[in-house]
Amino acid sequence: MHKAAEGGQLGVLKYLAPLFGARFHEKDSNGCTLLHWAAQQGHCRVALYLIEELRMNPHDKDKVCAM
Fold first, then answer.
1. Which pLDDT belongs to residue 47?
2. Averaged pLDDT for residues 16-38
3. Which of 24, 28, 27 is nearest to 51 (CA)?
4. pLDDT tens digits for 50-67?
5. What are the C-alpha distances in Å from 32 to residues 10, 23, 51?
6. What pLDDT, on a 0 to 100 scale, did the predictor assign at position 50?
7. How many Å separate Cα 46 from the centre of its chain?
8. 66 DSSP assignment
9. Dihedral over Cα of 48, 52, 55, 57: its sign
10. What's the rounded Cα separation, in Å, for the pair 10 and 56?
11. Residue 61 contacts residue 35 (beta carbons within 8 Å)
């Protein structure tokens, strides 16, 4: 799912989200979430989907991502 967020693959994320449940909040080996990857790569539609539909918190300061 992280690669889909990084690549801006909104359709893939919409397909996978119900299958993975709350696992979309998991961090990768760098400590990055899907939202980190989408935002870093400038995928606004993906970031908005993650925030609005999957309720990821863009203000969550305890997330440390070492990209």
1. 94
2. 85
3. 24
4. 999 989 888 776 656 766
5. 18, 13, 15
6. 93
7. 8
8. -
9. positive
10. 15
11. no
Copy the structure tokens of residue 21: 């449940």
Q: Which residue's entry shows tokens 């939202």?
A: 35
Rg of the chain over all Cα atoms, to the nearest angstrom: 11
What is the spatial distance between Cα 60 and Cα 32, in angstroms, rounded to a whole number? 12
Task: Write down the domain spans for the chain.
Answer: 2-52
Contact assessment for residue 34 and residue 56, using Cβ atoms and an 8 Å cutoff:
yes
Rounded distance between C-alpha atoms, residue 2 and residue 35, angstroms:
9
Separation of alpha carbons 65 and 6, rounded Å: 14
CA atoms within 13 Å, Cβ hemisphere of 35: 20
User: What pTM does this model have?
Assistant: 0.82
